[in-house]
């Protein structure tokens, strides 16, 4: 008997944003579901801070490598940091795919040395202290932010910060900071 190959389904969190393919939590193998008490009741325009991170570890080149790295991050966040869920809302991997972490409409877990909960955290998979972030990955992050605005999950008056702007850390790495030029401006739609 031949078992049909099941495609790696893309999450509907990218729905309405065709340029942003998003691999869902289920499809990368998340061990948990987002806790209902962490969902934001009225998520429209609540996110005003977009915080950029790097995972400070290995880069991934394939979807399978990215999935393994994200599973390890989830395990670290839950078991070692004693959090209820993975900290990042989204991850951008070397294959130029977006992976759902907490996703849209879920309150940010307070990251050590930060206090804002009206933020969304986007992490680039890899260590960008000395490695250069791929330009395609930067463009994908910009598209993800625009998707969040279109879906009314991110305020049109959002601001983009590196994690190091909010806490004493090298994250997201000097190479990522040097290349990142996100437009945190007022947009009229």
Automatic annotation (TrEMBL):
Q: Which CDD domains does its entry note?
A: PGRP
Which positions are tagged coiled coil?
A: none
Determine the domain of life of the protein's source.
Eukaryota
List, in alphabetical order, the GO biological process terms annotated in this UniProt record.
Answer: peptidoglycan catabolic process
Q: Which GO terms describe its molecular function?
A: N-acetylmuramoyl-L-alanine amidase activity; zinc ion binding
Per the database record, which ranges form the Peptidoglycan recognition protein family domain?
A: 20-167
Read off the InterPro entries from this record: Amidase/PGRP_sf, Amidase_domain, PGRP, PGRP_domain_met/bac
Q: Where is the N-acetylmuramoyl-L-alanine amidase domain?
A: 35-173
Q: Which family does it belong to?
A: Belongs to the N-acetylmuramoyl-L-alanine amidase 2 family.
**Protein name (record):** Peptidoglycan-recognition protein
Q: Which organism is it from?
A: Strigamia maritima
